[in-house]
């Protein structure tokens, strides 16, 4: 199912181009050309391409508020809400009466849970353009999300007066009525939405929930059967149908529906939990335990999963495991009287009678305290209620605006993400650089006379890159033979450097290192020799870790990036000091070369010195503000050290500079309400 904010996005993002006033043609051809390309990319859903084109426009003329606005929409669709808001802010700064910028900034702020600011933006937009009724829809959504349901109804009323055939407005007003406790009006709105669009499963799913609440199970089941027939991939429909089938004691049908959900959403902890309960009731303890294990992998703070798994452990004679689970449940919820009671029982089975007696007394004390609580506070001590059963299926609440089960799940976010690699000279692949296909004035390519002069003097064609040369780009064996003979004959440091490049491209690390040593001995003042030797030394460590089945990456847990875990559980830490020394030498020889500091950032990160890594990336960006990889890697480190806001801003900038991988990171670590 869709969230109200997602419904709003679908309505308004698509219509943005229709609502946008026609921009006056500008004198410069390049601007018009990139505007057309940007709008075409937006229409096709190629939002990264759109960001790139609007960024080019803003390099030409940073006073164009429309370019900021459209780039903000593209960033929003990429999940980069911080970046989108920054662009909307700039559009408003340049044009304080730009209604659409207020509107979309409000959508963005609402998406990130800043409802008061969103409503203020929408109020301002309504003042500027009271005849634009889409604003009332958006404000109704925001009022709903901020739980101001009466105001939400009022705004949806205003919208429906002008747009009486919009089914989404009735769905949203129905949800608002539902939270106000008016199921009759909610049902009427859902009926109306279905009559306006009978091919949308959304209305049937929502209406089924009201039927279910009224225990009209057959009507609810009929609606969900129809919803599934309209959309066989709708997991929310299957989930709700599973609840109804369970109440009708159709346990196999329930499992079938839950299986369908999990086939599409294998980490849906709510569904896994419910399936575990049913499997337990059917006596399939092994598979039930597997589901509880997966639930706790996803959400290690799920109290009921520990509690119910302990019951299975007790049933199967695994008493120590049962005590451990019950202890964890108590740790998470110290007032859980039933957990104390069950732990007392299991401890008695283990012969731990004194400890069992202590648990029993604690449970009784908590039960007595629970009984003295007023009705208003009883919910806070629900786990002390010994009359309550904890083996019932868990249903979603009446918030029909949820998208899937996002609010019920705590997804496992301990995901490893590679740093972007270090820069060094590599043998050129012969492939034309994409940056050269655009006008020189628009390219972000770093230009350095010293670098260019050095590259021209190397006897093979080279380029400064963070990526390895393309496979088969050169005939390594023949080229190596020719260069090696010339290096031996002349002793020219450039020849030794070229020989090192060829050897390293074939993973002949020791031979390459020897060649770099010879080049540096011959010409100790050449900065690029140190950069390449330092990068090679780091690459050798990475290669060593890979053949030991380790992966050295920046992880989002607290393990530390310099640590590589091996299969026997040991931890090995690698020494990057020689590589750091080479980069430091390069920085001393040529302090204004940004890639040296970028490389140092990587090396300090791999050495688990995060503050120094951040400082080095910052130095690189001071020298070269368009170095997207430096924003990306600094963003990862900032997220790692829990400075998520700054890290996500860096990721947004990396994406803006054309690094599309940044948006995958943003979607994982920055899209948090």
UniProtKB/TrEMBL annotation:
Chain coiled-coil ranges: 346-373
Instruction: Cite the Gene3D superfamilies for this sequence.
Output: Tetratricopeptide repeat domain (1.25.40.10)
What keywords appear on the UniProt entry? Coiled coil, Repeat, TPR repeat
The residue spans of each TPR repeat are: 65-98, 99-132, 133-166, 167-200, 269-302, 303-336, 594-627
The record's listing under PROSITE patterns reads:
TPR (PS50005), TPR_REGION (PS50293)
Supply the InterPro entries for this chain.
TPR-like_helical_dom_sf, TPR_2, TPR_rpt, Ycf3
**What is the recorded name of this protein?**
Tetratricopeptide repeat protein
């Amino acid at each position: 199912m869709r969230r109200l904010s997602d419904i709003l996005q679908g309505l308004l993002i698509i219509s943005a181009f229709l609502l946008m006033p026609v921009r006056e043609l500008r004198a410069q051809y390049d601007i018009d050309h990139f505007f057309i390309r940007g709008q075409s990319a937006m229409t096709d859903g190629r939002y990264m391409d759109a960001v790139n084109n609007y960024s080019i426009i803003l390099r030409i003329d940073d006073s164009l508020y429309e370019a900021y606005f459209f780039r903000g929409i593209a960033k929003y669709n990429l999940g980069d809400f911080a970046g989108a808001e920054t662009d909307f802010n700039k559009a408003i700064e340049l044009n304080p009466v730009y209604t659409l910028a207020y509107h979309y900034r409000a959508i963005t702020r609402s998406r990130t849970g800043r409802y008061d600011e969103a409503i203020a933006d929408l109020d301002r937009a309504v003042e500027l353009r009271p005849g634009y009724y889409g604003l009332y829809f958006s404000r109704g959504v925001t009022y709903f999300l901020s739980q101001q349901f009466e105001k939400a109804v009022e705004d949806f009323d205003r919208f429906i007066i002008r747009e009486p055939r919009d089914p989404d407005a009735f769905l949203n007003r129905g949800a608002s009525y539902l939270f106000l406790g008016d199921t009759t009006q909610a049902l009427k709105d859902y009926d109306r939405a279905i009559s306006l669009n009978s091919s949308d499963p959304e209305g049937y799913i929502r209406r089924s929930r009201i039927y279910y609440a009224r225990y009209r199970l057959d009507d609810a089941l009929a609606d969900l059967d129809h919803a599934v027939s309209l959309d066989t991939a709708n997991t929310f429909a299957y989930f709700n149908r599973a609840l109804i089938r369970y109440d009708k004691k159709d346990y196999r049908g329930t499992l079938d529906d839950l299986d369908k959900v999990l086939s599409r959403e294998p980490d849906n902890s709510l569904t896994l939990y419910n399936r575990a309960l049913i499997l337990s009731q059917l006596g399939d303890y092994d598979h039930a335990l597997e589901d509880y294990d997966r639930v706790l992998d996803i959400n290690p703070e799920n109290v009921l999963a520990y509690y119910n798994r302990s019951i299975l452990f007790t049933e199967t004679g695994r008493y120590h495991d049962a005590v451990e689970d019950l202890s964890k449940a108590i740790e998470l919820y110290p007032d859980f009287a039933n957990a104390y009671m069950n732990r007392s029982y299991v401890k008695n089975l283990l012969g731990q009678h004194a400890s069992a007696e202590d648990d029993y007394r604690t449970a009784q004390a908590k039960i007595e305290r629970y009984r003295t609580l007023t009705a208003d506070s009883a919910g806070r001590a629900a786990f002390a209620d010994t009359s309550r059963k904890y083996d019932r299926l868990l249903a979603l609440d009446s918030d029909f605006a949820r998208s899937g089960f996002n609010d019920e799940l705590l997804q496992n976010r301990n995901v490893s993400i590679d740093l972007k690699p270090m820069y060094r000279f590599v043998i050129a692949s012969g492939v034309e650089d994409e940056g050269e296909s655009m006008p020189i004035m628009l390219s972000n390519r770093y230009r350095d006379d010293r670098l260019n002069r050095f590259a021209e003097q190397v006897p093979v064609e080279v380029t400064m890159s963070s990526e390895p040369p393309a496979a088969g780009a050169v005939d390594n064996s023949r080229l190596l033979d020719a260069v090696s003979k010339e290096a031996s004959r002349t002793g020219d440091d450039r020849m030794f450097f070229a020989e090192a490049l060829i050897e390293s491209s074939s993973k002949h690390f020791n031979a390459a290192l020897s060649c770099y040593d010879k080049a540096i001995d011959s010409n100790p003042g050449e900065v690029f020799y140190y950069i390449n030797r330092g990068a090679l030394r780091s690459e050798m460590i990475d290669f060593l870790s890979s053949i030991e089945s380790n992966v050295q990456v920046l992880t989002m847990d607290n393990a530390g990036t310099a640590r590589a875990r091996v299969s026997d559980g040991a931890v090995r830490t690698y020494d990057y000091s020689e590589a750091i020394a080479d980069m430091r030498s390069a920085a001393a020889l040529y302090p204004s070369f940004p890639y040296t500091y970028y490389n140092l950032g990587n090396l300090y990160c791999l050495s688990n010195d995060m503050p120094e890594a951040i400082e080095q990336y910052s130095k690189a960006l001071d020298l070269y503000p368009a170095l997207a990889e430096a924003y990306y890697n600094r963003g990862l480190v900032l997220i790692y050290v829990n400075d998520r806001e700054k890290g996500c801003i860096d990721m947004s900038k990396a994406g803006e500079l054309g690094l599309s991988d940044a948006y995958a990171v943003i979607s994982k670590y920055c899209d948090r309400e």
